[in-house]
Amino acid sequence: MFITSNAHKFGEIREIMNASGIDIIWKKMSYEEIQEDTTEIISLDSARKLSVMIPEPFFLEDTGLYIDGLGGFPGPYSSYVFRTLGNEGILKLLAGIPGKASFITVVTYFTGKDFLQFKGELKGSISNNPVGHEGFGYDPIFIPDGYTQTLGELSVTDKNRISHRSRAVAKFVEFLKNTENYGK
Amino acid sequence: MFITSNAHKFGEIREIMNASGIDIIWKKMSYEEIQEDTTEIISLDSARKLSVMIPEPFFLEDTGLYIDGLGGFPGPYSSYVFRTLGNEGILKLLAGIPGKASFITVVTYFTGKDFLQFKGELKGSISNNPVGHEGFGYDPIFIPDGYTQTLGELSVTDKNRISHRSRAVAKFVEFLKNTENYGK
Predict the structure, then answer these.
(1) How many angstroms separate the CA of residue B74 from the nearest CA in chain A?
(2) Cβ neighbours of B89 in A, within 8 Å
(3) Cβ(B118)–Cβ(B136) under 8 Å?
(4) Which positions in chain B touch A32 (Cβ < 8 Å)?
C-alpha cells in the first residue's frame, strides 16, 4: 500500500514496481509532515504517525531537490517552493552560482512493526532554462550527470531507468524480494 | 510562560509585555512545527502538541514574511529560507518584481484549557539592498509603509512601536487584562 496524494508519484512508482512483478495499491491521502532539515527525519515522523491509524504495511515516498550553491535549498520544502516560486524562481536564485544539485528520494516502509528507509540519489546540474514537458516538478530544469537533456525531456520509461525515485524503489524491491512478504 | 528557542524573540516580547506590566518567564525549547501554508495552522498544531506535556498556560509566537510577488513566499518557512538563502536570496528573487510584503505574527495562547490566537500584521515593501544591523532575520530588507528606513535601522524600541510582533502581543495583552488572570 502506497500512501500519497500525488498521482504523478503513484504512476511512476507503480510502473517501476510492476516491472519487478510487484503490484501496489494506492491509498490516496495527504498526511502530516513536520518542518525538519532532512527528508529522512520528516518521512520517518510521518510514517510513525500514520502507523497509529494504519496497522497494515504501507510505504511513503518523499523527494527533494538539494542545490549545492543554495545550502541545500529547497530540500525538504521542494513542493512548497515549487508551488510559490516555481522553476523560474530557482533559475533566478542561481544566476551566477554553479548549479550542481541532487534529487534525493527516500522511501519509508512500515512493515507492520518496524520502519525501514531506502534512499536514492541522482546527481546533476540545474539548466539555464526550463526544457521539456515530461515528468513533473523540477524535472524541466534538472540535467542528470552524463546527459545533455533535462529530466523533462526524457520519457517516463527513460527517466525511471536512472532516477533517484527508481533507485530508492529498486532498493526497496530488493528488500521485499529477500523477505517472506515478497509477492504477497 | 513563553516557549521559544529564539533569544531575540524572547527579548522583544519581554520588552513589549513588561511595558504593560506583565512579566513573562522564558521556557527555552524548540518544538515541532508541521508543514502547512499558514502560520495560524502551524502554530495551533504546535500548541496542541505542547499542551499534552505542559498543562500550565503558555504562549508561542510565530512570524513569517509574506511577499506578494512571490505567492506569499517564504511565509511559514521564513526561518528555513533565511538560513539557506538569506536576504541576498530574497533580493535576487525580487529583481524586477514589485516588492510589496507583509510581516505577520501569530501569538498562540494556551489558557490551560483553550487555544486562542492573536494576529499582528505590518505592511511594507522589500528594499533594494540590506540596510541596518538592528533587529534580526529579514529586518534589514523590510521597509514599513510610511517609513524610508528598514526595520534593521530602527532601534528595538522604535521597532516595537509599530511591529507585527508588538501588534499581536498588544491584542494578547488586551485579552489578559480583561481576564481574571491578569497580573498573576
Answers:
(1) 8
(2) 70, 73, 93
(3) no
(4) 34-35
Q: Is the dihedral of CA B73, B78, B80, B83 positive or negative?
A: positive
Between CA A58 and CA A1 the distance in angstroms is: 5
* ipTM summary value: 0.73
Of all residues in chain A, the one with the smallest CA distance to B90 is A93
The full set of domains in chain B, from first to last, is 2-177 (3.90.950.10)
The answer to whether the Cβ–Cβ distance between B84 and A75 falls below 8 Å is: yes
Estimate to the nearest angstrom the gap between the alpha carbon of B58 and the chain centroid.
16
pTM attached to this predicted model? 0.81
Most distant CA atoms of chain B, gap in Å? 52
pLDDT tens digits, B102-144:
999 999 999 999 999 999 999 999 999 999 988 789 999 999 9
Instruction: List the Cα angle B70/A82/B140 in 5-degree steps.
Output: 40
Torsion of CA A110, A116, A122, A127, to 10 degrees: 50
Angle B10-A71-B90 (CA atoms, 0-180°, nearest 5)?
Answer: 65
CA distance A157 to chain B (A): 32
Q: How many helices (H) and strands (E) does chain A have?
A: 6, 7
How far is A27 from A24, CA to CA, in rounded Å? 10
Active-site residue identified among B23, B37, B45, B62? B62
User: Is B34 within 8 Å of A35 when comparing Cβ atoms?
Assistant: yes
B71–A80 CB contact, under 8 Å = no
